[in-house]
């Protein structure tokens, strides 16, 4: 077993989120708000899927900074193992939701929502990194439901024992099986908004 098993972090999860539009607020800042028919009650999603989320909110609920969310979100099916195989984490999500494909497609007809499989990795210099290879189960699930994928790779610029905005860099990649879209953007957290 690799020595950095406790240092490397990699987890994956499935999300249902309101489709959003970007608007300029009174202070000149940009905000993402749900499009018409994008607001949903996360409790309804929980009941329909028969799965409990690890995080959920409805448009208008307050976040940790006491600001209202501009859109609704339901996130569940969290997978944290195997830590070095993000592809297998995604496969477990796809298999867990496979029998729920008709329900998910009905939700898409009822609400203006997007489906996401997100992979989040925290990497350390000179250490082993998680692998991501999407198997046919994940690709089929994404194709049949219109689910997009998102991978955030975060790596520390040194052995800091924790995150610090000036010492953490990242790469975000989005994939869309249906359209063949693959998009990537690099940033240094805290220095560039994207």
General description of the model:
The chain has four helices and nine strands, in the order βββαββααβαβββ. It is of the alpha+beta class. It has a domain at 9-18 and 43-52 and 75-188. Strands 4-5-1-6-7-8-9 form a seven-stranded mixed beta sheet. The longest helix is centred in the middle third of the chain and has 12 residues, at 86-97. The radius of gyration is 18 Å and the shape is globular.
How would you sum up this structure in a few lines?
With 194 residues, this protein is of the alpha+beta class.
SSE layout and pairing:
Elements: E1 9-18, E2 20-24, E3 30-34, H1 42-49, E4 55-57, E5 73-79, H2 86-97, H3 101-110, E6 113-123, H4 136-145, E7 148-156, E8 168-176, E9 181-188
Parallel strand pairs: 6-7
Antiparallel strand pairs: 1-5, 1-6, 2-3, 4-5, 7-8, 8-9
Helix pairs in contact: 2-4
**Number of distinct helices:** 4
Taken in chain order, the helices and strands follow as EEEHEEHHEHEEE
Tell me the major beta sheet: 7 strands, mixed
Strand content: 25-35%
Class based on secondary structure composition and strand pairing: alpha+beta
With strands numbered from the N-terminus, the spatial order across the biggest sheet is 4-5-1-6-7-8-9
Between the first and last Cα atoms, what is the distance in angstroms?
Answer: 36 Å
Helix share bin:
10-25%
Uncertain ranges: 1-5, 163-167, 186-194
The general outline is globular
Oligomer: single chain
Number of strands: 9
Radius of gyration: 18 Å
Mean pLDDT over all positions: 80
């Amino acid at each position: 077993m690799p020595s950095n098993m406790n240092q490397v972090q990699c987890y994956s999860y499935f999300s249902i989120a309101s489709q959003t539009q970007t608007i300029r607020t009174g202070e000149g800042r940009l905000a993402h708000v749900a499009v018409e028919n994008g607001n949903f009650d996360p409790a309804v999603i929980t009941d329909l899927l028969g799965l409990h989320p690890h995080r959920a909110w409805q448009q208008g609920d307050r976040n940790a900074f006491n600001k209202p969310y501009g859109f609704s979100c339901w996130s569940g099916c969290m997978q944290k193992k195997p830590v070095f195989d993000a592809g297998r984490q995604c496969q477990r999500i796809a298999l867990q939701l496979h029998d729920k494909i008709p329900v998910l497609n009905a939700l898409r007809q009822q609400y203006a929502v997007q489906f996401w499989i997100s992979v989040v990795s925290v990497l350390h210099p000179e250490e082993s990194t998680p692998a991501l290879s999407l198997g046919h189960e994940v690709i089929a699930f994404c194709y049949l439901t219109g689910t997009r994928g998102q991978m955030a790779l975060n790596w520390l610029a040194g052995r800091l024992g924790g995150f610090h905005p000036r010492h953490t860099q990242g790469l975000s990649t989005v994939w869309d099986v249906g359209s063949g879209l693959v998009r990537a953007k690099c940033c240094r957290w805290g220095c560039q908004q994207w």
